[in-house]
Fold each of these.
Amino acid sequence: MNPQPNSSTPAPAAADTGTGGSVVLAWLVVGLPLAWGVSQTFIKALALFK
Amino acid sequence: MADNSSSLLDRSRTIAGPGYNRWLVPPAALAIHLAIGQAYAFSVFNKPLGALISRDVAKPAPDDWTPLQIGVTFSIAIVLLGLSAAIFGKWLERVGPRKAMLASSLCFGGGFLIASLGVHLHSIWLLYFGYGFVGGIGLGIGYISPVSTLIKWFPDRKGVATGMAIMGFGGGAMIGSPLANNLMNHFKDSAPLGVAPTFIVMGIIYLIFMQFGVWTIRVPADDWKPAGYVPSTEHNDMITTANVSADNAIKTPQFWMLWVVLLCNVTAGIGVLETASPLIQETFSDTAMGAGKGVTAAAAAGFVGLLSLFNLLGRFFWSSASDKLGRKVAYAIYFGLGILLYALIPTLGHNLQLTLFVAVACVIISMYGGGFATAPAYLSDLFGKYQVGAIHGRLLTAWSTAGVLGPLIVHYLSDSRKAQGFTGAAAYQTVFYTMAGLLVVGFLANIIVTAVNERYHEKGPVTIEPGAH
């Protein structure tokens, strides 16, 4: 769901253009470290079930 | 040059243009929260910091810092989190999220660098100043910086949006803990236990990582709405269309009821988090379970890890669920179900029901996280979007209070029981019953929250930031 610009919005800068690709990239930037942290925690948690 | 760089940070320069996808905002917020969430992993430094002179964590030297001295660092950081969130909240609303996020990154990253100097010089005061004071300010500003922006971008899914960001704070410890361990292991031959260079590298990594949030964040134009979004026309007393300023909000009983709600939620959660490792080891010991069947220290660490995971998941799950349930109902569930589950923990321990014990603790911690993550949306429902970030900042003083009170209560109660000769689950029985009692207080405080009286509403249209457009 993308925003609807309104007439009072300032002229867009190039950096303001958000495509599906940039959204995926942005989520990867934060998702990869988080996935690594979760995996490390999960491995540690496995000791509880051994 | 100076003019250019300052204007880039201005709120007016962060207003999204056409085509900006609002789903870029949650990752920007997550970049900040994943970084500052490292604070929850500070305990990973406890043993190395306590053996900088002896260089043997098993045999600290007389001049080494004591666990109490080191523990004060985290307490200072949490107190500064609440204070700075309260003090800088209105500034944040005025200057916008980008400048606030940059300030947060400089304080948080810089705090690590100052702390590394403290470690190098073995000055506890420099450690307190760096990680606790400067870093704590970074925590406070960073925690609230994306909240009101997210609420403005996601008026249709406030709980989902703030849940995603605040989930990052729970996830930050999961990254920070193994990262610190790997770095200390890498640097162990170049400095005492590798702590000082680890602080330097982590400070730089977090400073850089947070820049992603700083330069990705955008605020919506004042009259922007999501495509197809039609605000509900159904009258709901608990979701206002008016706006209340931060200064007026703290004059309302609703704000203080929510303050009590957060205080009770956090203090009770700390009851589990503080006791998790010794509780499970002492309750399910070899003596109780049979030789070789007790919970080991490694398994207890796994239990703590599992709780962290549910803390993270609960932040997103419960906060998102509150969009459907309503905030008041969501908190009634956290507290109502919480009272039963807290009271059940000692019985499960007494009956040696390990699997159920772990499952119940995980549900409790998921609701603890949910209580944190649902707060901004609750505030927005009651006080409007106008200064919700600043109001949230002031509410976080409840967290600081609980961060100091919670461990004191927990250790006092469990130590008293142990001094009376109680062992295993029985030693922690009063802790859990007291926490269940606190949840009763929180439940009642939530139940009596009503709509804010109109006399506190802003008269006429509000301007988010003078001169922004």
Amino acid sequence: MRPVYMISGGITKFKKAHPDKDFRLMVKQAFDYAMNDVPNLTLEMIDGSVASYFSDHFTRQLMAGIMVQDYLGLCPKPSKRIEGGGATGGLCFQAAWESIASGRMNVCVAYGFETMSRVNTWKGNEFIAHASDTNFDYPVGGFYTGYYAMMAQRHMHEFGTTVEQMALVSIKNHGNAQYNSYAQSPMKLTIEDVRSSAMVSTPLTMLDICAMSDGAAVAILASEDMAQKLSDNPVRITGIGSGTDAMRMADRPHGKVILLPHESEDDYKELKYPGVHSFRGGRMASKLAYDMAGINNPLEELDFVELHDAYTSSEIQTYEDMGLCKYGEGGGFIEEGYPFMPNIDYGINLNVKKRIPVNPSGGLLACGHPVGATGIMQAVFASWQLQGTIKKHLGNDELQLKNIKRGAIHSHAGTGTYITISILEKSS
Amino acid sequence: MQKKIKLQETEEGTILFNVDPIIIKHHYEIDYIHSYAQDSAFFAGLANKKLLGSKCTKCSYIFATPRSHCMECGAKTEWYELPKQGEVHTFTTCYFGSEAFLKETPFTLILVEFEGVNTLFLSRLVGVKPENVKIGMKIKAQFLRNSKFKSTDVYFVPA
């Protein structure tokens, strides 16, 4: 496999609705932004693309991908659509990586989008709930927040995680987004705000949940030769991992934890795994990505993480899957302040020994979640972090982390059905 | 004189939400012809007040939600009648939901754990106030009198 670099990225502002732009124009704007960032790259140099969008229901258009391809002027170059629920963006990013790593392409564009505003919020929830088994699960009251709420209840039962710990995730991510002009819902919140907002599915409130959005994101990946030619600041993709689990949450077996290098079997003697409190697919993705990137202890060897926080509770679950802390310690991990940004005032007392900022961008909770764009948006923010260009792109450098060399992005579908993790590193 | 060619117009209009940009209402509706296929016996079981899971013929793994092939070893499974009593593995009360279920809110979803069964079953819990639902609570299956051949033909109540 050849080394693969991300040389550029672009995003549109994520918004509740962009009625003035359809998905083609949204992607075009993100694409032009990315192209402008590498001025020596021309359309002729692009070998092909991968399209990322989740739902034909939302788009009300089959084969929307090819409409983007022709709009961008990329026909007749090769392209394909990748789809895997919430992880569509992450899977697309990795498909673009594969096309470069294999030698099939030297420059590949990963573009993602979703236009969720074409239906009302509760119809949108109904569409999304069709990403659960339609024989057994959907008819019972198919609702993704309900599924995640059941996981959260079990996580609380197994490990003593609290709703206040979950609220801290909301405070952190909405707080970070105050400095991200692309984000849909920047807010300065208190635990009280989160707990007193409308109850959606016990214990998750409106502020524990991400919103639906319209938006697009583009990442341009290149081989080493092309990256050196086109960019003085490319970001190297050093690890790729993905994993899966059964569609039905009820089918999750009880077996042994897949161990990361810094863990031992003794850590989890009593734990029935993954149950519905943990994501086995996320652990598998972590293990594969860390193996490829040569990471032995993610807490020590990663400088930041952009992860799929569709729910505050799932961010806590994901700390554990990614091995930032042990299984069961996710609630304490946020309470002890690890994932907060070092320089932002959240209005809470943090007595922190060590930081590994999680979702500096604001994550899904605050940026919004236009599904097909989301996983690519994470790559864009992660690459700007590593390039040190946050100020150039966001107009302020509050979210720019200093002295960093490696970050991880995490994309996640269903009740943990498809999960991807990619490791990005500064190349110089 | 030649007859003018003209398309016959109707008087049905379009519902317009906005003019700049133009946003219209587009209606879409469909009836599927949905086969339960190899899962059919489960739904027939509900009509006969039975809860059918699956047991692997090779590794004996027992699935509360049926599947005709084993997720652990790939072998064929056989139908396995689940106990009618179980306990709450986890739960939530939904105050919002998919549009199709909004009118039923609030409702309580549970994953049911059965003694000696390796996986869980998603259902609704009825007759318990949201604040009184607890993990580990003993519950029993109850069936609709007239089956609708849907997974909601069974629901759970306190045992």
